[in-house]
Amino acid sequence: MMGHAAISALRHAVPYLRLFRDSTFVVKVGGEALVRPGGADALLEQIGVLHSLGVRIVLVHGGGVQADVLAEKLGVEFEKIEGRRRTSPEMVDAMVLALNGEARAALLSAARKLGIPAVGISGMDAGFIDAHRRGPTPLASGGSVDLGEVGDIDDVDPALLGDLLDWGYLPIVSPLAGDAEGKWLNTNADTVAAEIAVSLGAAKAIFMTGAPGVLADVEDHHSLISELTLDEMDAMITDGAIQGGMLPKASAIARCLRGGVSRVHVVSHSLPDALLTEVFTNEGSGTLIKLEADED
After folding, report:
1. What is the pLDDT of residue 242?
2. Residue 115: its pLDDT value, please?
3. Helix, strand, coil proportions of the chain in percent (round to 5)?
4. With 60 as the cut, is the pLDDT of residue 181 above it?
């Protein structure tokens, strides 16, 4: 029997259920969430709730942690320069195996257990992500570096994802893409999620991280900022409050908002039910980023 607390929570969620039914959400999660015991199951349980309520969801996943472990096992040397991975041909082979294999398999397995009709694809499938090999990349310390088999996105064709969503499937997307010659390229998962969200006209893009959201002080998890505008986020970048691994996410967030996605969220992948709390409660659990502040 449903308790009073559950009934109250359901009543509070009703306006959101009406608002979000048939809307499209793009959720991005890093590979580190999948190596935590029960991480894939906990994530798919939340996504399964949204899917069962009629929300059209695309899940984009990373897999850098899995790729690094596999590369070490295979004896493939790799390095990171200013936080960016140099992707040799041998390393991109390891990434194909890790992302299209181990990381995807964990998510598909969790979806199968929960009865969610999920389909695993990459940017190479039907060529729906068109990319090219990046040229020399400027370094903050000066000069530039060739990062190897790293791709920059030229275009995302939403037709394949749109068909899968129309048919009731949950697309689980590996961010690896290919060029016109079919060469695998390592494309940034945050960027892929943003471009997919824009191409589909998504209502929300949700980036799941190890932190509880955007923090005023990266060393203090109690300094969570519950709501930001794009200008305020840009000021945090200028002031150095947003740095390191959060910078690619900030760039992806800006792309979403400027591309027509009205709401972007940053939430934790490790806090229980953080995704559902963010979507279905006024208080939320992470950080909501909007293009501009709401008018009074």
Report:
1. 86
2. 95
3. 40, 25, 35
4. yes
AA letter at 49: V
Tokens of 88: 């040799």
* Third-level CATH fold of 20-290: Carbamate kinase (3.40.1160)
Q: What is the pTM of this model?
A: 0.92
Q: In what order do the strands lie in the sheet with 287-290?
A: 118-122, 170-174, 56-61, 24-29, 204-209, 263-268, 287-290, 227-229
Q: How many CA atoms lie within 13 A of 33 on its CB side?
A: 25
Q: What is the mean pLDDT of the chain?
A: 88
Q: Is the pLDDT of residue 165 over 70?
A: yes
Instruction: Kindly provide the residue ranges of all beta strands, DSSP E only, lying in the chain, ordered along the sequence.
Output: 24-29, 56-61, 79-81, 84-86, 118-122, 129-133, 137-138, 144-145, 151-156, 170-174, 177-178, 184-185, 204-209, 227-229, 263-268, 287-290
* Residue with the larger pLDDT of the pair 258 and 86: 258
Q: What is the pLDDT of residue 127?
A: 93
Structure-token match 């199968």, residue found:
112
> Is 115:78 a contact under the CB 8 Å cutoff?
no
Please tell me the distance from the alpha carbon of residue 167 to that of residue 277, in angstroms, as a whole number: 27
Contact between residue 204 and residue 278 where contact means Cβ atoms under 8 Å apart: no
C-alpha–C-alpha distance, residues 18 and 265, integer Å: 20
